[in-house]
Amino acid sequence: MSYSTQLRFVAGALLALAAPVAARAAGDLNLFGWSEYVPQTVIDGFTKATGIKVNFETYSSNEELISKLVAGGGRYDLVQPSDYAAEVMIRQKLLAPLDKTKLANLKNLSADFTGRPHDPAGAFTVPYMAGSVGIVVNTEKVKVPVTSYREVFQAQFQNRIVVLNDNREIVSWALKSLGLPINTITADSLAKARPVVANWVKLVKVFDSDSPKTALLNGDVDLGIVWSGEAAILWNQHKKFRYVIPAEGAHQFIDVLAIPANAKNKAAAHQFINYILRPEVSKLISAAFPYTNPNAEARKLLRADELANPASYPKEGKLETFRDIGRMASDIDRLVTDLKSAK
Amino acid sequence: MLLWLLAFVVVPSAILFVYSFCERDELGRVVFSFTWENYQRVFDPIYLRIFVRSIGYAALTTAICIVAGFPVAYFIGRAGEAWRNRLLLLVMVPFWTSFLIRTYAWITILKQEGLLNAVLQSLPFGLGPWDLLYTPTAVVIGLVYAYLPFMILPIYGSVEKLDGALIEAAHDLGAGPLRVFPAVILPLTLPGIAAGTLLVFVPAIAMFAITDLMGGARVPLIGNVIQNQFLQARDWPFGAALGVVFMALFAATYWALLRFRAREDSIG
Amino acid sequence: MPSTAAPRLRPPSGLRLLQFGLGGWTALVLLFFYLPIVVLVAYSFNASRLNVVWEGFTFEWYRSVWANGPLLQAARNSLVIACATTVLAVVLGTLGAWLLHRYRFRAGRSIETLAAIPMVMPEILMGISLLVFFATISLPLGFGTVIIGHVTFSFPFVLIAVQARLRGLDPALEEAALDLGATPAQAFWLVTIPCLRPAIVAGALMAFTLSWDELIVTFFTADAASATLPLRVFGMAKVGLNPTLNALSAIFVVATAALVAFAAYVRRLNR
Hints:
The structure holds three protein chains of three kinds. Chain A has helices spanning 3-18, 40-50, 62-70, 83-91, 149-152, 167-177, 187-203, 213-218, 228-237, 266-276, 279-288, 296-299, 304-307, 328-341, and strands at residues 29-34, 54-59, 78-79, 95-96, 125-138, 161-163, 204-207, 223-227, 241-244, 250-260, 319-321. By secondary structure, chain A is α/β, with parallel strands linked by helices. In chain A, the strands form two sheets. In chain A, strands 4, 5, 6, 7, 8, 9, 10 and 11 form an eight-stranded mixed sheet that branches. In chain A, helix 6 (167-177) crosses helix 14 (328-341). Chain A is globular. The termini of chain A are far apart. The model of chain A is unreliable at 1-25 (pLDDT under 50). By secondary structure, chain B is an all-alpha fold. Chain B has a single domain, classed as MetI-like (MetI-like fold), CATH 1.10.3720. Chain B has twelve helices and two strands, in the order αββααααααααααα. In chain B, strands 1-2 form a two-stranded antiparallel ribbon. Chain B starts with a helix and ends with a helix. Chain C has a domain at 70-239: MetI-like fold (Orthogonal Bundle), CATH 1.10.3720.10. Helix content of chain C is 76%, strand content 0%. Chain C is built from eleven helices and no strands. Chain C has helices at 13-43, 60-67, 69-102, 108-120, 123-136, 143-166, 171-179, 184-212, 216-221, 229-238, 244-270. Chains in contact: A-B, A-C, B-C.
């Protein structure tokens, strides 16, 4: 077998590989969203109502979405970032402005979730679902009240704590407990947060952003700071898992729908957003994922027990969304990495 | 093969190399202006410590894999012909289930109220409960589980080639198994062991998912740090620089080993 | 056939014990391998949605596998990608190992080092750099790009396994074939390849396994239509991993076992 035969083989193989790259029908909607966040029933319903086929591609964090878009991957008609990620995408001109005349159902949204700092005029984004990051306590194991970050991170709970494996989250809790702002981070505020985070990191048993509920359900930990959706699932599983918004205030996130600037099928994207905003459709999303539904009309259709879930619809508490902190993310990462590996 | 290497290894590596000298914007994207800053940061003691720890984990995993894997590979390699491929498949099939599902099964086994502790406590020796999950021990169990097949398979390749008559001859000459192993079997299967070591040790250094899931992400390894630069810190250039240093170190070591081996071959 | 045909004498009785010990150890290691598999199959019958606590027996998850169109589609995609990857990785890896062995290139050592690089390249770096490269040459993402990515990180495994077997392989065999009038291609196909078969099989198994379970490189190189099973599975983990995935894994294990048994049966019939 000569060298040139081998070359020819490789070239042939490459051509063969390129062939099955199917050309998509022009009318399809290419949706890039959080894995499983859009229920299959909703997608099927949309296709049935409009005849538009949906190609649903998934990611599992805002940063995955941004990296793939920024590296030049894929052409999408609709993306589903969280507030702060949408903010930087707007600033970087990666999103196209919405045509509100095509979004008649916008009126269904609750005013609490529109006009927020990431997109004050609502020109680029439409809220999809919202949630918060708060304290969840297994009340069968922890008998004392735990209502603030400082009360979670106590020596008596050493190795009984699960928190999100997200460095910005951890640092923002420390900043909140110090009464410092979480959205204007400086070298000075990080220096103040450092000893607090150093103490906390030593107490934690599990860092998990994907499924922090697992360690709680398994009984490997007794309390933690997790996504409200996870806490809502825990509450549905057993009422011993109590969710509290920390006294110092909590991070609220609003996941939105937005159209990338280079989208090919903006018309279908608008149709999809408008479809999602229908109360009876939005209700299905709430049923599948117990986050906070920003659609006021849809909330009227929810069952009493869904609305009574303290993790989905917390009664009180100070909530604040993240703003994009740009390059400071790297300093935060370095800080937490350093403290974690110092153990 | 050369063409493939050029297109899909050299070109991407070159892209990373260029990135590693760049600055970044607020999205973590590279901005093409030259800087040494990323490399200065790589040699910060924080990252060196993490690197050394990663190598430690990988070395321990490799050692356990050799000890645990060699007898298995030997047994399969010396088994009857009909059995060999079946046993090989038997080794691989567990790994055709999803990594995540398998890991969750391990969590079910190792957790405090899990199967292992239930078994331990039902025994009369007063053992347990052991606090295994989310500890370095759990990480090593996860690593050995994930990489053991990659040790068994190459060693199998060498064992299968062993000439049975050679071992017979050694036995006929009065050598017991304790002498045959170091004198005959080990030297002849060394290429397989070396290949297995490479296939286990090297990927194990850069591994990240097992530390997250079974170690509770408490102690970051180099794979986690690199991953974070792209998926948390938005610092592509620094991630690229870490990667470039890591790959360069590997390449230099590997090249030197090859050279050493070639010299040995020509002498021996 | 050189070595496989070597006479396999009955071991002297003193060695029986050793043989027994080896067999016992192998059984133990296999137990270690299958322990989580048994657990995950057991949990595929768990009535609880959350795959964590045992709540009772059900077949529901097997029904929901068939109802989950995207999941089945992803499993099919994974199978196609893993098979294509295996074939290409075996061809590239075996040819590469043989070329490096047969012709002592001046740059041989550097090429060998280069070929080993993808093994050590962190997945995220490979994923992003390949994506940047594909975007630059405007190659649309799809099955082709995913397979390219997978072949790139898996063929070194084949190459190294085959190389280990080539080392110490008697070069006289191939020369003898050439002396007897075989063309180089014939010598390669009829003499070298059969000698390398066990290493090729081992390499193929590794390539398939690596491709089947890869997540990060796939994320950056796939489009919606070529999303693989691991992408789906990790996505489902976010919102609660339910036993549907255990059921799918169980089906896969049973199907593989059935296939192997069937192949053995056919072979026996042919004998």
